[in-house]
Amino acid sequence: MSLDPVTQSPQTASAHLVPPFEMTRAAARFIRMMLLADGDATSGFRLVLSPGGCSGLSADMSVCREPRTGDAVVERDGVRLFLPAESRLLLAGVTIDFSDSLAQTGLVFRDPRNTGTCSSHASPIVTLG
Predict the structure, then answer these.
(1) How many C-beta atoms surround the C-beta of residue 118 within 10 A?
(2) Torsion sign across C-alpha atoms 64, 66, 69, 72
(3) What GO biological process terms does the UniProt entry carry, in alphabetical order (predicted)?
(4) Within-domain flag for 126
(5) Which of 16, 74, 92, 111 is the most exposed place for a label (fewest CB within 10 A)?
(6) What does the DSSP assignment read for 37-56?
(7) Domain range for residue 32?
């Protein structure tokens, strides 16, 4: 496994293969809390996206101690994300946000390309009970 020349973090896929996406402070804070609760200093947040859901995306996520083969390690706002190839493609232009309302609590994806029928164009991927 090689080191990213900018972050000096392990990477299994070139960081330049990650299309631009945004992450709000609220989403970064939520992910940091997940990493503190379930991980250690070297853990990352693995985000596996697939087509579907109200925003056009659905996701499976987990806290992992190391990336899997083929995952890119991306650092944003102090959190390490482990992103498989399909997730990297689907994240292009997307904003990862966090919502805490009566209707939903969890991460949401805001994709400006989505023309679905959902009024918020966002889909929760974690529901906190």
Answers:
(1) 12
(2) positive
(3) iron-sulfur cluster assembly
(4) no
(5) 16
(6) HH--TT-EEEEEEEE-STTS
(7) 2-110
CA dist list (Å): 30 to 13, 16, 18, 35, 88: 25, 26, 22, 9, 20
Residue 40 main-chain phi, psi, to 5 deg? -135, -170
Token reading at 89: 């493609």
Write out the two tokens for 120.
Answer: 């918020």
Residue 27 lies in a domain: yes
This prediction has a pTM of 0.74
Residue 11 near residue 2 (C-beta atoms within 8 A)? yes
Identify whether 123 is part of a domain. no
From first to last of the 129 residues of the chain, give the pLDDT tens digit: 444 444 444 444 445 467 799 999 999 999 999 999 999 988 999 999 988 766 678 889 999 999 999 999 999 888 999 999 999 999 999 999 999 888 878 898 888 877 665 554 444 444 333
